[in-house]
Design brief:
The chain is mainly α. It has one domain (about 55-335). The chain has 16 helices and no strands. Helix 8 crosses helix 10 (about 200-220).
């Protein structure tokens, strides 16, 4: 009995070993081959093309916005700050309403309206008015400080807005963003000799509300086309911009000139509407944090246009700052959330 009992576990172990050896040869689903795994690990070409297209659209938006301060300075040669802001929003609102009506776009869903109102308050009303008030006493070069800090503020607002979803920019992203913002801030503060004034208060307030509008607009653009986001935002602001225009026109002097008309037309058609179309499309494609960092190049572009269009002198530190900003942009574009 003992011999038989002791043999039983040995035979059972041998049987299990034979079964384990023969198991891989049993019919069943074939394991994934290494070529298949390699193919699965390769990035899909369509998302890569979409990413490139999104970056190009966001960059085109930055280029469009870089003319906004010089165009606003031109508009101020013939219109007061409140009149220029009101007319800018009124013209953009009428243009957007015509486009929405021609395309027979239905009204946005109720859940979209809170975000659209944030875009309207930040990008259509607050930012244009505050920056226009700042440009009365500040040069375009100094006012570009708001654009230097705006990408970091936009990324911060977007990170706070999406913190519950678990999507957070990496440390490399934040490090490059902070370095780029510091470079631009240092450059612009150097030009103002470190003496902040009332214009800086206007710019700081404009920065905060515009960052919220950018981040919220980029979020909604994942559900609605970008041109509809800014279109409904400027349409929603029509009652305010129309009232502002009606009250400001009689109260502020108006001197119609070629530069004033050209500047007003650009800020209304491009800065307030057309530029946002490609900007929000780009933000929806590549994400708010990455798209916002492309704006680090906007102050330097604005400085270039201020030299060519307004006759301002280009600071000697501009090339050094340009290299630093471009390096920061490259790092933020490579950083993964």
């Amino acid at each position: 009995m003992r011999a038989q009992d002791s043999a039983t576990p040995t035979s059972a172990i041998a049987a299990r070993s034979a079964t384990a050896t023969a198991a891989p040869q049993a019919p069943g689903p074939a394991p994934v081959s290494s070529p298949t795994r390699a193919a699965a690990s390769l990035p899909a070409p369509a998302p890569a093309r979409a990413d490139s297209a999104g970056t190009a659209q966001a960059a085109l938006g930055v280029l469009s916005f870089s003319f906004s301060f010089p165009a606003t300075a031109w508009a101020l040669t013939g219109f007061g700050p409140w009149t220029a802001t009101g007319l800018r929003g009124l013209i953009a609102g009428v243009l957007a309403a015509l486009c929405l009506a021609a395309a027979r776009v239905p009204l946005p869903e109720r859940r979209h309206w809170p975000g659209l109102l944030v875009v309207s308050a930040g990008c259509v009303l607050g930012f244009p008015l505050l920056t226009t008030l700042a440009l009365r006493t500040s040069s375009t070069a100094h006012s570009a400080v708001v654009i230097g800090v705006l990408p970091l503020a936009t990324a911060a607002v977007a990170a706070v807005r999406t913190r519950r979803s678990g999507t957070r920019p990496s440390r490399l992203f934040w490090g490059a963003a902070l370095a780029g913002a510091a470079a631009v801030l240092g450059f612009t503060l150097l030009q103002s000799h470190g003496r902040p004034g009332i214009a800086d208060l206007y710019l700081f307030a404009a920065l905060l509300i515009c960052a919220a509008g950018y981040a919220e607009g980029g979020r909604i653009s994942r559900e609605l086309p970008g041109w509809q986001v800014i279109g409904w935002a400027v349409v929603a602001a029509l009652p305010v911009t129309a009232l502002t225009t009606a009250l400001a026109l009689p109260a502020e002097p108006v001197e119609i000139g070629a530069k004033a008309v050209a500047g007003l037309a650009y800020t209304a058609a491009v800065s307030q509407f057309g530029g946002f179309v490609v900007w929000y499309r780009g933000m929806a494609a590549i994400g708010v944090p990455r798209a916002s960092q492309l704006q680090l190049a906007q102050p330097l572009l604005t400085l270039t246009w201020s030299v060519l269009l307004l006759g301002e002198e280009l600071p000697a530190a501009a090339p050094v700052t340009a290299v630093a900003v471009l390096l920061c942009i490259a790092l933020t574009q490579r950083a993964r959330a």
